[in-house]
Specification:
The protein has 277 residues and is mainly alpha-helical. It has one domain. It is 64% helix and 1% strand. The chain has ten helices and two strands. The protein has a two-stranded antiparallel ribbon.
Length: 277
């Protein structure tokens, strides 16, 4: 049974109320506001850089490293995101984030979002293009592909909302600090897109790299690299979920496919025990 206080809107409304009427503490409030502005500004810049760079097949990015050194620079840009992103999601990474300042634990989600956004912005904005264009969509094909490209981004937004928008955007940390309370994390996601597959965010992120109107060697390398990460990385995430949620996650995983939807699904709730148990 769903706790009415644990819905997406209820959690975000509670965060907003706390942030709009914070307890006294000028230094704490100033820090929270500064990090909130930084977090969402960098987040927006990263998303915009990704959308624009891939819309041109990575052929118009700002990197100007001379070749052949550009190949090494681009490889470093591709690798830095999954490596750091995954390390920060480990227990050791979480402890590191929690130790960053007096409010490190409260601000961990905000700090994580800032780091991830900077990584993505650097990757997409400072890629050095090869200058080779294999194919560029035109006419009706262009509009159809752009429709699919836009749909993949909307899918990513919906999946992020279903997972907990306050966590995915980094708002949970700085808004909790504003309210001078411990962050309240959402429960294990199992509704919306998570009713269909267990890893909709990773699937949506991978789709954005393939549904593009311009194809270059750069875009192919990026799509292959990030798709490999999107397929492999959730295995570690699910290991953490099993440790945290135990049998609840096992039942959910037994009924919900990893990343490829089933067309004939059980009507039982992901938390409902099997009758055979």
């Amino acid at each position: 049974m769903t706790d009415p206080q644990d819905t997406h809107f209820a959690r975000i409304w509670a965060l907003l109320r706390g942030a709009l009427a914070p307890p006294p503490g000028l230094g704490r409030i100033a820090l929270a506001l500064a990090l909130g502005v930084l977090c969402h500004a960098v987040f927006a810049a990263a998303v915009l850089a990704m959308i624009l760079a891939m819309a041109f097949g990575m052929s118009e990015s700002l990197g100007r490293v001379p070749w052949p050194w550009a190949a090494l620079a681009n490889a470093a840009l591709v690798l830095q995101f999954p490596i750091v992103h995954s390390l920060l999601l480990t227990r050791r990474g979480g402890r590191l984030l929690s130790r960053l300042g007096a409010h490190g634990g409260t601000l961990a989600t905000t700090t994580y979002a800032i780091i991830a956004s900077v990584q993505l912005f650097v990757l997409f904005a400072f890629w050095t293009p090869s200058g080779i264009i294999w194919w560029r969509a035109e006419g009706m094909a262009l509009w159809l592909i752009l429709l699919g490209y836009g749909a993949s981004w909307l899918f990513l937004v919906k999946a992020s909302w279903d997972a907990g928008a306050e966590v995915q955007s980094g708002a949970l940390g700085w808004m909790s600090l504003m309210a001078d309370r411990r962050p309240r994390f959402p429960d294990m996601p199992k509704t919306g897109t998570f009713r269909v597959i267990r890893q909709p965010i990773y699937l949506a992120f991978a789709l954005t790299t393939w549904l593009v109107p311009v194809w270059t060697p750069d875009q192919l390398l990026l799509a292959l690299s990030l798709t490999t990460y999107c397929v492999a990385a959730p295995v570690l995430k699910e290991r953490r979920f099993r440790a945290r949620y135990g049998a609840r996650f096992d039942r959910y995983a037994a009924r919900t496919p990893y990343m490829v939807p089933r067309f004939a699904r059980s009507e039982r709730s992901p938390d409902e025990p099997s009758s055979a148990q």
